Amino acid sequence: MSQPIVVVTGMPFEARIARGDGVRVVCAQNSTLAGELEATIAREGARGLVSFGTAGGLIPGVTAGQWVIAQKVLDMPQQAREYVTSIAWADALHRAIPRALRADMAGVTAPVVSAADKAALFRESGAAAADMESHIVARVAQAHGLPFVVARVVIDPAERSLPPAALAGMRSDGSTDILGVLRSLAGNPLQLPALLRVGQDAGRAKKAMTHGRQIVALRLGEGFGAAMAGI
């Protein structure tokens, strides 16, 4: 049996979109991801790693639903150490999604919530977007001598701060806590318009991810796997 491509996500909805034949999906939060990814590689092997899902926008003007294919991953917890993604894999993804932005991705340990913090991270890193898994994927890929690529969709634009209810609705495992959202809204109903915009942005991001998965044959299994194996 051939080794799978291991697709890494941080949120359950991202994992549901990513699943397909020939792909092993690892969905874990920042603190446990490295261990789960190492265990999967030890148990099943891997042809390469894909960091797939959503990211927070850092460049002003980039809207929700914009694909970003990383040229480099900047490991911000390790003084912005740089990891270069597989050029062949990234080129293949860009041919399939020509409107995707080719730029750097910043790896962070916590969500970048406010517009001011996003602007500060952009000034520091020059990255187009930030997520909490790609730097860990990059570390593990380098440790095992594996190719890796990052394909992420912007879910919250740089100019927008996330309201407290959006964060209250995120459980530690990445699933949605509806009661947490309602409690936050009850305490501050004025954040409802901002929360509705977050929901609209999330809808655009999910639609882009699903469509992109199809056109890239991110039936991330047999189609994507065959394309990657042939590179």
Automatic annotation (TrEMBL):
Keyword Hydrolase: yes
Key words, A-Z: Glycosidase, Hydrolase
GO MF assignments: adenosylhomocysteine nucleosidase activity
Residue ranges annotated for the Nucleoside phosphorylase domain, each copy included: 39-159
This enzyme's EC code(s): 3.2.2.9
Claim: Hydrolase is one of the keywords in the record: yes
Main enzyme class: hydrolase
Superkingdom assignment: Bacteria
Annotated CDD domains: adenosylhopane_nucleosidase_HpnG-like
The protein's name: 5'-methylthioadenosine/S-adenosylhomocysteine nucleosidase
